[in-house]
């Protein structure tokens, strides 16, 4: 078993907490912006276009991530509405970040007549890298509680402030976010190979979202989140919606071309 005993909180100043999840999320966002900006310039796009769109995408991602988490745990926030805005205490949903960032970034790009499809395609591989970086913080924190396992690669959280430890003690649990990192890297390989081969613009991002959603759907069965309906958690329902939209778009609109 793999034992993790790191304090989830790096430091605390009053009510403000800096967790490993927050730290790696910040690094992930910076890496994504830097990568997309570099790739955009190689495509002849102005860096300021990326920065401006990124600001709105990040804001939309934060709102979406928090909103999806709050909806999922309304049993807690319904009785404590003042806690809804306390995002520094933790509680965000990656799928909400993707959705919120996509909506906000697309609206801003559309208003300013930017190349939405091209920007989205450049963002796809960067998001997979950023998601994986952010998940490192989740692994350290142990905040995404997973099912108990006897596998030799199971995680045992020994720090008393780890959510996994508070729920399961020293029992070994599935490294579900670790599985997600592996899946992200597999999807990244496919997305990288399909660059400049799948058209029209925007289809690479659609491919990323479809593939990520497919893997996340099955990985979510290993997590101990609240069940919504028919044994399915919130992430199951969101990924089903994502796949219901992206797969038909790929089938009816995407085409494979030879690289120039």
Please tell me about this protein's structure.
- This protein has helices spanning 20-42, 47-72, 74-77, 94-111, 116-141, 163-168, 176-193, 203-219, 234-253; strands at residues 2-4, 9-13, 16-19, 155-157, 198-199, 227-229, 232-233, 255-256.
- It has 260 residues and is mainly alpha-helical.
- It has one domain (2-256).
- A two-stranded parallel sheet has the order 1-4. It has a two-stranded antiparallel sheet with strand order 2-3.
- Strand 2 (9-13) and strand 3 (16-19) form a beta hairpin.
- Helix 1 (20-42) packs antiparallel against helix 5, helix 2 (47-72) packs across helix 4 (94-111) and helix 5 runs parallel beside helix 8 (203-219).
- The longest helix is centred in the N-terminal third of the chain and has 26 residues, at 47-72.
- It is globular and about 55 Å long.
- It starts with a strand and ends with a strand.
- The mean pLDDT is 89.
What is the number of beta strands? 8
- Number of helices, counting only DSSP H or I runs of 4 residues or more: 9
Helix and strand composition category: mainly alpha
N-to-C SSE string, H for helix and E for strand:
EEEHHHHHEHHEHEEHE
Largest sheet: 2 strands, parallel
Calculate the terminal CA-CA distance, rounded to whole Å: 49 Å
**Share of helical residues:** 55-70%
- Strand fraction: 5-15%
- Radius of gyration, in Å, reads 19 Å
Principal-axis shape equals: globular
What count of structural domains? 1
> What quaternary form is this?
single chain
Mean pLDDT: 89
List the strand order in the largest sheet: 1-4
- Spans of at least 5 consecutive residues whose pLDDT stays below 50 are none
């Amino acid at each position: 078993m793999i034992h993790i005993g790191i304090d989830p909180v790096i430091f605390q100043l009053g009510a403000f907490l800096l967790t490993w999840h927050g730290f790696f999320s910040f690094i992930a966002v910076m890496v994504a912006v830097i990568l997309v900006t570099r790739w955009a310039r190689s495509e002849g796009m102005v860096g300021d276009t990326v920065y401006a769109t990124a600001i709105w995408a990040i804001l939309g991602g934060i709102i979406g991530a928090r909103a999806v988490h709050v909806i999922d745990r309304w049993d807690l926030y319904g009785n404590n509405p003042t806690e809804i805005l306390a995002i520094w205490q933790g509680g965000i949903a990656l799928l909400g970040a993707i959705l919120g960032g996509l909506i906000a970034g697309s609206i801003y790009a559309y208003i300013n007549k930017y190349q939405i499809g091209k920007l989205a395609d450049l963002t796809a591989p960067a998001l997979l890298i950023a998601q994986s970086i952010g998940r490192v913080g989740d692994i350290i924190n142990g905040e995404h509680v997973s099912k108990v396992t006897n596998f030799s690669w199971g995680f045992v959280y020994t720090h008393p402030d780890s959510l996994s430890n508070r729920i399961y003690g020293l029992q070994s649990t599935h490294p579900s976010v670790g599985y997600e990192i592996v899946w992200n890297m597999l999807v990244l390989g496919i997305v990288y190979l399909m660059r400049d081969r799948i058209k029209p613009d925007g289809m690479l991002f659609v491919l990323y979202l479809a593939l990520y959603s497919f893997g996340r759907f099955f990985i979510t069965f290993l997590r101990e989140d609240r069940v919504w309906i028919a044994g399915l958690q919130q992430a199951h329902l969101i990924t089903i919606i994502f796949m219901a939209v992206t797969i038909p778009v790929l089938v009816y609109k995407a085409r494979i071309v030879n690289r120039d």
